[in-house]
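JOB MANIFEST
job_type = single_chain_structure
chain_count = 1
residues = 283
[input]
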Amino acid sequence: MTMNERTITDLQKGGLSKPLTASGNLLAAIGLWVVNLWRPPLEFFSDAVAVIWQSCRPVTWRRPVRSKFVSQCYEIGTRALPFIMVTGIFGGFGIVAQSLYWLEAFGGKALFGGFLTVVLVRETAPVLVSLIVIGRSGTTILVELGTMKAEGQVHALDAQGIDPFLYLVLPRVMAFSLSMFCLTITFVAVALVAGFVSGTLVGMINLPFLDFLQSALGAMGSKEYFLITAKTLSIGFVVGLISCKTALSEVDRGTDLLGALPRSYARSVLATLLISIVLTIFF
């Protein structure tokens, strides 16, 4: 028997290991509630800091990580372009052309640039693109990593000396963030062009294309450019990390994966709306 075992045995024989009182049970319940309440956000924050820290280290970006990052940029960004462009076409007609029509009807055509900046660039584009990418790529990442976790492939990588965090999580999160920014800019560009074309065809817009762009984007200042960049990068980063973390921490078998899908989607949508609202309020 070791020294620690003898000490514990002596304490038990001496009557020092007494059951908890009612107040002790209450304090234990409160402590457990506080721990369970703060553990998830603190773990998420620590993972986010780890991703940022590791991404800034050149030694992290070895060939396997770079290759995985490029492939994820293709899967998340390039393959989503058709969906974004189609959505941008409908959004251009529904937002750009209709905004100009109603502003002209109420005598507020001079406010077109500022109105379009607020509605399309600052608010609609980041959130709408995020919802599309969450449904298409966020669930794909969850299923892919969740399947690897359930089948033991993640432990196999660890046993081979490959850090799953660097190889699986970091490139996906960074690719998600960069792809969100690029897809949002693409959406805005397509929406403006589609709005100009549709408005010209129905006679609502009688301006040259360059004058239309000047009217639409001339109201944008440095704050608007910073805001759309901050929104897209931060939303993509958080959503990508939520998908990876949910798959690797909450999935142990196939049945867990089915339950993790709606949780991950709901968390991603909630995070998107929360980030958009907070950045809009402060900027």
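[summary]
Residues 112-150 form the longest helix (39 residues).
The mean pLDDT is 82.
exit_status = 0
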